[in-house]
Specification:
Layout lengths: L2 H12 L4 E2 L6 E2 L2 H11 L5 E2 L6 E2 L2 H12 L4 E2 L6 E2 L2 H11 L5 E2 L6 E2 L2 H12 L4 E2 L6 E2 L2 H11 L5 E2 L6 E2 L2 H12 L4 E2 L6 E2 L3
Antiparallel strand pairs: 1-2, 3-4, 5-6, 7-8, 9-10, 11-12, 13-14
Family: Belongs to the krueppel C2H2-type zinc-finger protein family.
Pfam family, one: zf-C2H2_6
InterPro entries: Znf_C2H2_sf, Znf_C2H2_type
């Protein structure tokens, strides 16, 4: 071993970090670790995935990425046994099982287990209607509401009555229609109390 290698090795045992990053001041015990770290700052990505050619600044990032391709799912949910190739995906999934709702709406204090759910909810408050119907230009704050609305314009009737085969463009229309068949009379006249299956 050369003298400089011995000196470098001894620094590890001293727990001192003599190799400092000139960009962010993070310190390292080994020069090689500093060199690897510097790749993050200069945007060099020398570690390339042989499957999809995506590049990474560190070998450990490439190794994590490779799980996606080889379909190895090392991270298993202890609640439902569903497996994931990335730990980050498992962590996100675990929120589904948890009653903890870390993402709180600042307007109404309603809480959500995942940030995307909160983001979707926020459209309701700020009255931003990002989803516009291409047929009538009516706007909606939620994409799900636009999709439901679009069925009204469509001649396609996806919801079929299992009794008489009549079809409807929306599930709510089918549900209303079903009252006719099951003889349930939910709508009562306020004057004479006679009941009807349809309003």
């Amino acid at each position: 071993m050369r003298p400089e290698e011995v000196k470098s090795h001894l620094l590890v045992h001293s727990n001192e970090k003599h190799f400092k990053c000139s960009v962010c001041n993070k310190s390292f015990s080994w020069k090689s670790h500093l060199n690897t770290h510097l790749l993050v700052h200069n945007n060099e990505k020398p570690f390339k995935c042989s499957v999809c050619n995506k590049s990474f600044s560190q070998k450990s990032y490439l190794n994590t990425h490779l799980f996606v391709h080889n379909n190895e799912k090392h991270f298993k949910c202890s609640v439902c046994n569903k497996s994931f190739s990335l730990k980050s995906n498992l962590n996100r999934h675990l929120l589904v099982h948890s009653n903890e709702k870390h993402f709180k709406c600042l307007v109404c204090n309603k809480s959500f287990s995942q940030k995307p759910y909160l983001n979707t909810h926020l459209f309701v408050h700020n009255n931003e209607k990002h989803f516009k119907c291409s047929v009538c230009n009516k706007s909606f704050s939620l994409k799900s509401n636009l999709n439901k609305h679009l069925l009204g314009h469509s001649n396609e009737k996806h919801f079929k009555c299992s009794v008489c085969n009549k079809s409807f463009s929306q599930k709510s229309y089918l549900n209303t229609h079903l009252f006719v068949h099951n003889n349930e009379k939910h709508f009562k006249c306020s004057v004479c109390n006679k009941s009807f299956s349809l309003k």
